[in-house]
Design goal:
Elements (H helix, E strand, L loop, with lengths): L3 E2 L9 H12 L16 H17 L7 E6 L2 H13 L3 E6 L2 H10 L4 E7 L21 E4 L1 E2 L4 E2 L10 E4 L16 E5 H4 L6 E6 L16 H6 L9 H17 L1 H22 L3 E3 L10 E6 L5 H10 L2 E2 L10 E4 L6 H17 L1
Parallel strand pairs: 1-13, 3-4, 3-5, 5-8, 8-9
Antiparallel strand pairs: 2-10, 6-7, 9-10, 11-12, 12-14
Helix pairs in contact: 1-7, 2-7, 3-4, 7-8, 8-10, 9-10
The chain binds pyridoxal-5'-phosphate.
Length: 354
């Protein structure tokens, strides 16, 4: 039986996407060849890459607005250093909202000065710092829109005069935003788009080419743009599966439609967390994420009972990250409202038992 997959990443993907991508492994487009054994320069695959790139821009509302979409290797972690390599001349600002921000900061420090414009480390990252100021003269400001581990999400983005760069790995394509306020967006595919192996980068062309250092080809966004995201062999399976997920999303009605479903799922789960005395929420209410909900048991002695109940209900991937403990329910785009309902039923049953 298919599990209710609340895994934080790699994450649940739509069943129809899994079916179609597995078919392409055996026979791609009726060619008698597998997707993963044909040339990435063949017309069939070049079409896939172009479709994936244009769907990404279309869904984000960035088509024809001077942006390029790339599917690169190396995960979001590679972007931590590529961003700095391509943009950090002297000093950059970073908002420190958790483990992933800290990792991005660590890489950036190898290339220049890092100003932490704000940090929520004092409260184990259970909130999003607000009211911070962004000094003039920074090469860019880097944000993490959704903090996968701690379950917080930026709801309102700062207005700045410096380029805005955002790690959207765990909430890209999940909610409507004015994406044109960002100069560069990156996201590892495996949180909300596809399997691990590809990273989406969406970058405004005219912010590139401003650092004085020489950039190795593989780390240079302009090289990847000039080669239509085919500088070297791309991760074809991850790109194809991501393309199928983006098509699925478009057919569903795009980000506006999925946002409505995501809000329903989040409301259902958070109202249970708030009303059920057996559980306590981790993240600050106004900052909590619609993708990753973090919560704890009010009484740790109930752990074995609760763990047995959710596992029996066919739920997977509910354990919290080791730096937070407790539980984390990740409700990415492909997770159904029905699956959240199953979890909420288990939580109410705990209340009856407790
Ligand atoms: C998972 C995650 C990353 C790391 O992604 P990799 O593709 O494994 O490098 C970075 N940032 C955020 C917000 C994440 O959730």
């Amino acid at each position: 039986m298919k599990k209710h997959n609340f895994s934080a990443g790699p994450c649940i993907l739509p069943q129809e996407v899994l079916l179609r991508s597995s078919e392409a492994i055996m026979d791609f487009n009726g060619s008698g060849l597998s997707l993963i054994e044909i040339s990435h320069r063949s017309k069939d695959f070049v079409d896939v890459m172009e479709k994936a790139r244009s769907l990404a821009l279309e869904l984000l509302g960035l088509e024809g607005k001077g942006y390029s979409a790339l599917f690169l290797h190396g995960g979001a972690s590679m972007e931590f250093l590529m961003v700095a390599y391509n943009f950090l001349e002297t000093k950059a600002g970073y908002l420190n909202t958790g483990t992933w921000s800290e990792k991005a900061i660590k890489e950036a420090k190898m290339f220049g000065d890092v100003v932490e414009v704000g940090s929520s480390k004092d409260e184990n990252f259970n909130y999003i710092p607000k009211g911070y100021s962004v000094a003039e003269g920074l090469d860019y400001l880097h944000l993490t829109s959704n903090n996968t581990i701690f379950g917080t999400q930026i709801k309102k983005f700062p207005k700045t005069n410096v380029p805005l760069i955002c790690d959207m790995s765990s909430d890209i394509f999940s909610r409507q935003l004015d994406f044109s306020q960002f100069d560069l967006i990156y996201a590892g595919a495996q949180k909300n788009m596809g399997p691990a192996g590809a990273t989406l980068v969406v970058v405004k062309d005219d912010v590139l080419g401003k650092v004085s250092r020489k950039i190795p080809s593989m780390l240079d966004y302009q090289v990847h743009i000039s080669k239509d995201s085919m500088f070297n062999t791309p991760p074809v399976f991850a790109v194809y599966t991501s393309m199928l997920t983006l098509e699925w999303l478009k057919n569903l009605g795009g980000i506006a439609a999925i946002e409505e479903i995501n809000e329903k799922k989040a409301r259902l789960l958070y109202s249970e967390i708030d009303l059920n005395p057996v559980f306590t929420g981790f993240a600050n209410k106004e900052d909590r994420s619609s993708m990753n909900a973090t919560f704890n048991l009010a009484d740790e002695k109930l752990k074995d009972t609760f763990d047995a109940l959710w596992k029996d209900a066919g739920i997977n991937g509910l354990n919290g990250h080791r730096s937070v403990g407790g539980y984390r329910a990740s409700m990415y785009n492909a997770l159904s409202l029905e699956s959240v309902g199953v979890l909420v039923d288990v939580m109410s049953e705990m209340e009856r038992k407790g």
